[in-house]
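ok posting inputs for the zinc ion job
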Amino acid sequence: MTNPRFDQVQGEPYGACRDCDGVFSTKEEAHQHMSQTHELARQAGGNAGHSVSIRNPERPERIRRGIGSIVSDVMNDFCNQVDDLINDGHVTEEEATEAMRFYPDFQEAWENWLAESRS
Ligand SMILES: [Zn+2]
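and the output
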């Protein structure tokens, strides 16, 4: 038995249109509505179609968000620990950043961290 934590709620619509009364039971219906309204807008010389607010994401979307949030927690924890090394005077920011190039998966998170925390 799978844990229902990431399951889509049965019987609830997938999403609703922000621009009209459209309600969609599946992701495909929502995407169809967005491309149809986009096409109509394009023919009328405009650009923007209707946008859909997702109220009941499908399982893969829920899992992606769940995993994404774990990854982001780990990256934050990692950056905090490196920052502690710097703040405690064990390494300089330059030394830490230099060592980071051996860990490219974390390097980008670190560079974003620096950009945000040092600005
Ligand atoms: Zn619409």
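notes: The helical segments are 27-43, 59-87, 93-100, 104-117. The chain has two domains: 8-57, 58-119.
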